[in-house]
Write a structure and sequence with these properties.
Elements lengths: L8 H4 L2 H13 L4 H5 L1 H4 L5 E3 L11 H11 E5 L5 E9 L3 H10 L6 H4 L2 E3 L3 E3 L8 H4 L8 H28 L1 H18 L6 H28 L6 H25 L3 H10 L7 H4 L4 H6 L3 H15 L5 H5 L2 H7 L3 H10 L1 H25 L9 H26 L2 H21 L4 H25 L6 H25 L4 H16 L17 H5 L18 H8 L7
Antiparallel strand pairs: 1-5, 2-3, 3-4
Helix pairs in contact: 2-12, 9-10, 9-11, 9-24, 10-11, 10-13, 11-12, 12-21, 19-24, 20-23, 20-24, 20-25, 21-23, 22-23, 22-25
């Protein structure tokens, strides 16, 4: 029944909630830009060593290419594919080349062939008006690891945002944290276009990485607390869909704005559309009430009721205060309970490893679409479209088939496609592109499922803490991916695929939580059916549809 009505929920929203739905949807319409900016700023086009100072004569293009094959070092990948290096050359001269052409022998230069040097200058084959921070800040050749450092700092920023978001939101309110970090993201994004050094660029990347996740999570919380229970998943889904659309908009901006500084400036300037949110977005009455600001909460509830044309209903927006007070437990106490209970700790570690490897896979694909065959802008668009479609399908999969089994199937399929993707390209490079998009599709579905599934396995007092810890482990996965992102895909892809497959197997021991009541206590959480290890154990009674929405409301898909 829930599935049949899934697409009718929007029409159940009242006037105020429909406005909120639209505002939060628009708030996330540029959220993919910070995550995907390496496709523009870290883009390094094809380039050659500038040998104009080495060649002592005017030569034709064909002769120049012939000299490069003599002068430049050959490199190979792990499957034996050779190509001329664009960075390193043999210690040879133009005179050596002339003599070689006359004698046809390389033996006089055997010692020099074993000695290499780094090209001092390069010729980059940018299209007209195109530029990148990677070239300007020399993130190539012997300093190619600089691109990995940028990704690492972005992920560290996201990790920092994950750690502080809950504290800030609970301490200062949903609205101010949401808007404050929304503006900070665009200000830092805009400022990135002015930086003049690699070090300053890394610092700015860290800050907009931090803000991007905080404003996203705050929007989810704000939306769910201002919406009735049955429509909370719809609010979360709207922000996820906005991220997918943002993913598809990004290559459109990148196609028409080829200069990396102008891309940052235009992307940052888009933040001005959120200035009216200061007046359009209200604080959460639930947070105001819990913070002791009851008069403010009641005024907002009266405003909502007036817009909706209904009587004021305090209970609908602030909940059962006495129940919330009973459920409050210090963070230190929550951690102690979690780490002293073997079953709950095992669940946390298994799901945390899943979050971690899904993040490795997701960003490993999202940030390398420039390397795929075909037009890089179209590849990015197709990748975003596949992700957007996966959001719709994920909702139906979770409702029809549950959580655990679809997760296992999708993740294992993703692991196989990731592992074989580089090798099918040996026959046709477009096969690699296709397999990569297939893997991205399955990974996106798996990510949606773990966001829904994780909080359903823990008691109320630990639900927020465990989700936050697993989200933190996901950022650790992001840091890991920064070190393998630009390495040999014939080595990294099979290893990542195998690890994902292996780490998916323990999920078989996780309980099935579809249509099962949310555990309120530790005893109820431990009573959940622990997968195939507890065959024959009596299942708890099925969950009321109203209870189902409590978990699905916490499913933001900002990887």
């Amino acid at each position: 029944m829930a599935t049949q009505n899934a697409f009718l929920l929007f029409f159940e929203l009242k006037r105020y909630q429909k406005r909120l739905y639209f505002l939060l949807f628009v708030s996330a319409i540029f959220n993919a830009f910070p995550a995907l900016i390496p496709l523009v700023a870290s883009y390094v086009p094809e380039f050659d060593c500038d040998v104009s100072d080495v060649i002592k004569a005017n030569v034709s293009t064909a002769e120049r290419k012939k000299f490069l094959s003599f002068y430049m070092k050959n490199t190979s990948n792990s499957v034996g594919q050779y190509k001329l290096s664009s960075c390193y050359h043999h210690n040879l001269t133009w005179e050596d080349y002339i003599e070689y052409n006359e004698t046809g022998s390389l033996s006089p230069y055997s010692n020099n062939l074993n000695q290499t040097g780094l090209c001092k200058k390069h010729i980059f084959h940018f299209e007209e008006g195109e530029s990148s921070a990677a070239v300007e800040f020399e993130m190539y050749c012997d300093q190619a690891d600089r691109k990995s450092y940028v990704v690492t700092l972005y992920m560290l920023g996201m990790l920092t945002g994950t750690v502080i978001s809950g504290f800030l939101s609970d301490s200062f309110g949903r609205k101010y944290v949401f808007l404050g970090f929304q503006y900070l993201q665009f200000i830092m994004f805009f400022f990135a276009g002015f930086v003049k050094s690699f070090e300053m660029y890394c610092l700015v990347v860290f800050f907009y990485g931090t803000s991007g996740l905080v404003n996203y999570m705050s929007a989810i919380v704000l939306g769910t607390e201002l919406t009735k229970q049955t429509c909370r998943n719809l609010i979360s889904t709207s922000i996820q869909l906005a991220f997918g659309i943002s993913y598809m908009i990004f290559p459109l901006f990148a196609y028409y704005i080829r200069d990396w500084r102008w891309f940052y400036w235009v992307g940052g300037a888009c933040g001005v559309i959120y200035i009216p949110y200061i007046w359009l977005i209200d604080e959460s009455p639930r947070w105001l009430y819990s913070a002791g600001k009851r008069e403010e909460a009641e005024k907002i509830i009266e405003k909502i009721s007036k817009i909706n044309g209904e009587e004021s209903n305090l209970q609908e927006y602030v909940g059962d205060e006495s129940k919330e007070q009973r459920s409050k437990t210090s963070w230190v106490t929550q951690i102690r309970i979690l780490f002293t209970n073997r079953t709950l700790l095992l669940r946390l570690l298994i799901m945390g490893s899943a979050w971690c490897m899904l993040t490795v896979s997701y960003y490993g694909i999202a940030m390398t679409t420039n390397d795929l065959s075909g037009d890089r802008f179209m590849n990015c668009f197709i990748s975003g479209a596949s992700e957007t479609i996966s959001y719709f399908l994920s909702y139906l999969v979770v409702e029809y088939f549950g959580r655990r089994n679809p997760y296992i199937v999708c993740t294992m399929l993703a692991s196989v496609t990731i592992a074989v993707a580089p090798f099918v390209g040996l026959w046709n490079t477009y096969f690699t592109t296709f397999m990569t998009f297939v893997a991205k599709f399955f990974i996106s579905i798996s990510f949606y499922i773990v966001y829904v599934m994780t909080p359903e396995m823990f008691p109320t007092q630990l639900r927020h803490t465990t989700t936050a810890l697993d989200s933190g482990l996901a950022r650790v996965g992001g840091i890991i991916v920064s070190f393998i992102l630009y390495k040999d895909k014939f080595v990294t892809a099979p290893i990542v695929g195998a690890i994902i497959f292996i780490l998916t197997l323990p999920v078989l021991t996780m309980p099935k939580t579809h249509n099962i009541p949310l555990p309120e206590t530790i005893e109820e959480a431990l009573a959940l059916d622990n997968g195939w290890m507890s065959c024959g154990k009596k299942q708890r009674k099925k969950r009321d549809p109203q209870q189902i929405e409590d978990t699905e409301m916490s499913a933001p898909l900002y990887m």
